[in-house]
Here is the input.
Amino acid sequence: MNKIQMTTPLVEMDGDEMTRILWQMIKDKLILPYVDLKTEYYDLGLLHRNDTDDQVTVDAANAAVKYGVAVKCATITPNRQRMIEYPQLKQQWKSPNGTIRSIMDGTVFRTPIVIDSVKPVVKTWKKPITVARHAYGDVYKAVDMKTEEPGECTMTFKGVSGKETTVVVQKVDGPAVFQGQHNKSASIRSFARACFQFAIDQKQDLWFSTKDTIAKIYDSEFRAIFEEEFENYKARFEELGITYFYTLIDDAVARVIRSEGGFIWACKNYDGDVMSDMISTAFGSLAMMTSVLVTPDGKYEYEAAHGTVTKHYYKYLKGESTSTNPMATIFAWSGALRKRGELDSLNDLIKFADNLEKACFDTLNAGIMTGDLANLAESGACQKRATSEEFLDAVAMQLQQLMS
Ligand code: NAP
Ligand code: MG
Here is the structure.
């Protein structure tokens, strides 16, 4: 059989622990037999990041900007405990995802993979809901202060022109806590553009929610920038028959729960952090959540939403069998290959990505599942509780049928 040819390399970012093991198996069993895979490979495994003083992460992000499509394996973000586990670490390296996000300046879209045998907790949900989380500023870049005596807190902005503006935050009669947060109009604008672009890509409605009735200046700025930017996308939305809809966050929560799903919900940083966990848990499992970073000028980095599944990796190292779910990592690959196919007009590659996803669904629908799904599935739906490798072999068999 002739392998499917690619014209532009995919930026491949390898990672750590159990997901690194799955990564290689996915390539060997599912992709390399059919695709003459062209990648520019970056090893983002912790020790290689350490060896290169984290330069490899920066290089990988720059390559993603250059080529436009990347696929990333989950990686360890070292904490204190990891510094003990890996004594050779020169420092507590920053989160690779944080580094990549700041270089690519993108928005993260998280979408659950939905199957019939795992019913969402919310009975009305028929289609996946994608949460688009603004990944800059607000409480994540805030400063805090605790005070002990009565007094007054003010906030001052000093412009480069020399002009100063001061507001009173609060006069207090005893101990208190204060917080100062910000966002940048340019970042909000990038967020808005990425959301409108993604909605067009997915041909789905876009919802956006803030609390502009309370945060009259702060959140109103978000709302106004979205409305302004929407003017540039309106015609395309009309052509596709999709809509942009703004509402208050509390109204949005109520509507989301009553909805059928099938739309994109854009959230400010904190709302997106909280709501994406709510949505993924209510749909089933973190192992079934895909994640893609999209820049306003249409560059894509695909990954799974979960981490490196450390507990399973320790079992694997002891030679015990593991039942880690590779779905989200496979869908990171299929998403990236499909996007590469679309950008380079390679119909065979697009078809392959579709088949790969179909093979996964066929396997799950045949009742072959990893442990996490077996525990969640409707009774009788799981015929075989598979190890990671058995699951991948079953997908490979389905894929072979689809490709022949
Ligand atoms: P995790 O790797 O997502 O795993 C947490 C737990 O969720 C697992 O122990 C497992 O539960 C379940 N789980 C997650 N993915 C699964 C899968 N594919 N199949 C089956 N079960 C799955 O989170 P963590 O243990 O908090 O973090 C581990 C490492 O990942 C950390 O070093 C962290 O820095 C890193 N991390 C990386 C990323 C990223 O690169 N995007 C994101 C998050 C975390 P059971 O043990 O109950 O089976
Ligand atoms: Mg969170």
